């Protein structure tokens, strides 16, 4: 089994993001990408016309430290609805705790189109171990979009982090039973 860390709150954005979801007239970003299954009807949009743009999401708490640096995945679904032949577009996904980056992938999205693409980044090993349930509970997901000619926008409709289950405890050893019966059959 695995554990899932889904967006549960907006942590920070640099003001260059929009969302199809609103609450009392204000954009709510995490609800547009937090579904348990794919829903491309709500999404966030990042505009890199003023340079690289970044948004951070708080993630699910209550994750048990798996005690390993392998088996983690960042999964996200993106599109470039305005693709016009940009010279260079990149979408970077990072799993972070504080200022420490534990996993990062920079994806060349140049040539992507309006159709959504699901990307799964499964590093063979995290850059560094999160190391405790407290660290997992303070982890957040960061997306950065950059477009060299400032013509494109990116849409993200779904994102989560997959974490391996905590290692199962070794089974308890059979206790020594003093005076256990011993049967011997002789034929």
Please tell me about this protein's structure.
With 187 residues, the protein is mostly beta strands. Helix content is 3%, strand content 43%. It has one helix spanning 133-137; strands spanning 2-5, 7-13, 17-19, 22-23, 26-27, 44-47, 53-59, 73-79, 89-97, 100-108, 117-121, 139-147, 153-164. Strands 1, 3, 6, 8, 11 and 13 form a 6-stranded antiparallel β-sheet that branches. A 5-stranded antiparallel β-sheet has the order 2-7-12-9-10. Strands 4-5 form a two-stranded antiparallel ribbon. The termini are far apart. The model is unreliable at 169-173 (pLDDT under 50).
Q: Concise description?
A:
The chain is mostly beta strands and 187 residues long.
């Amino acid at each position: 089994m695995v554990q899932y860390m889904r967006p549960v709150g907006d942590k920070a954005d640099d003001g260059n993001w929009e969302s199809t979801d609103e609450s009392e007239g204000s954009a709510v970003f995490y609800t547009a990408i937090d579904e348990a299954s794919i829903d491309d009807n709500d999404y966030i949009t990042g505009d890199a016309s003023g340079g690289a743009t970044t948004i951070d999401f708080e993630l699910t708490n209550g994750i048990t430290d798996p005690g390993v640096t392998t088996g983690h995945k960042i999964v996200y679904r993106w599109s470039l609805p305005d693709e016009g032949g940009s010279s260079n577009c990149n979408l970077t996904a990072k799993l972070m705790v504080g200022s420490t980056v534990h996993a990062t992938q920079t994806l060349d999205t140049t040539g992507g189109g309006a159709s959504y693409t699901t990307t799964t980044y499964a590093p063979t090993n995290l850059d560094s171990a999160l190391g405790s349930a407290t660290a997992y509970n303070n982890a957040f997901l960061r997306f950065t979009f950059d477009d060299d000619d400032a013509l494109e926008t990116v849409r993200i409709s779904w994102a989560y982090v997959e974490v391996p289950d905590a290692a199962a405890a070794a089974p308890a050893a059979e206790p020594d039973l003093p005076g256990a019966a011993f049967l011997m059959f002789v034929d």
